[in-house]
Design goal:
With 394 residues, the protein is an alpha/beta fold. The protein has four domains: 45 residues; 103 residues, Immunoglobulins (Immunoglobulin-like); 33 residues, no CATH class; 168 residues, Rossmann fold, CATH 3.40.50. It contains nine helices and 18 strands. The strands form five sheets. A six-stranded mixed beta sheet has the order 15-14-13-16-17-18, with helices on both faces. Strands 5-4-8-9 form a four-stranded antiparallel beta sheet, covered by helices on one side. The protein has a three-stranded antiparallel beta sheet with strand order 1-3-6, with no helix packed on it. Helix 4 links the parallel strand 13 and strand 14. Helix 1 runs antiparallel to helix 2, helix 6 packs parallel to helix 7 and helix 7 runs parallel beside helix 8. The chain is elongated and about 100 Å long. The relative contact order is 0.11.
Length: 394
Amino acid sequence: MPTTRGWAAIGAATALVMLWLFFGEDLLLALAVFLGVAVAGGSIYVRLAAPRLRLTRQIQPQQLHDGERAVVDLTLESQRKVYRVSVEDRVHGLGSATFIADRVSDGDTMAGRYEVISRPRGVYRVGPARISIGDPLGFTDSTSTFGHASRLVVYPRIEDFVGVPTGRGQDQTISTSRASFWHSGGEDFYTLREYQHGDDMRKVHWPSSARRDMLMIKQLEMPWQSRAFIVLDPRSQRHSSDESFEQAVRGAASTLHHLYKSGYTPTIWMGSGNGTTVGSTEAYRVAMEELATIRSVRTMDLRQLVAHLARSGMAGGVLVMVTGSPDDSDLSAFQLLSQDFYRTVVLTVTEDDNDPMVGFARAGALVVRSTPTGSWAESWRNAMEHGWSTASAG
């Protein structure tokens, strides 16, 4: 289709024809015909001279945290000469980058790089790229899409925590930031369960999978102390603002990161199913992507859902509940679960204390509090130090 310059040429040709009719000067008609033929010829050129292009895109890194920068490298290779090349690569929801070259010869490579400030959390689609080529005079152009769409996953921002909740068998005088637990658990066969996204395929029990016509995983016995359960309350009414909910998500992500790094095998539950167990790097990525895409919900019977989890036998060394300004449902859910865990922690996004928060403290929970625009790290460290000072020996 005509470019801005092409439409200007068409307008000029029309004006020259009118002047020719008025003055009868043949030179004016010749100029009008030249411009018209140039625009028509350019249109035919861009239709027939279809570009032979190959576009590749590399994103480093493809998974990062809120506020970090990703670098996108584009490489365009042409197998014929093309003119006035424009490449637009869009990160849907964040913006786009455009690169322009006056000419790319046969065999030449056009390279471009741009940075993406990844904010807020979520999963973003990058591309496919829109490439425009024009005729040599710039009167017309043609636009096509090349390459494939890529994914950019932005995890919630995390904070570095110091200290872990003290459990049985830990010496608080020598263990300040890392528990002596194991990711993989024991080596004795324990039970079978259905495959979940992120499980290690090497643990598939193929004979049982063939009998049941579904993938079955060999569940190895996990040390009781190394189990951790993180509950994220997704109800919007517990938060005074969107930023409050985002702070709760950041708290859950920071806790998951810290416990997994410290040797626990945490399971995180965000309002549905039985949660995601993080026992491998791939499972960690799955859980963090779930946190990247979680949205608050208006209505949910938290106590009923947690009662189902309690009946499923969820138990272990550490229970962490993350919420906004807690209510009686949070306290009831906490009481249902806490009896099967040795140490409990509650993260709240609130300005003031309320009755449920007092109930958490009376039940022996370590309370970690933050404001919607505040930080978790200092409050977490203070709570863990308080837990060490009050821990009983053995």
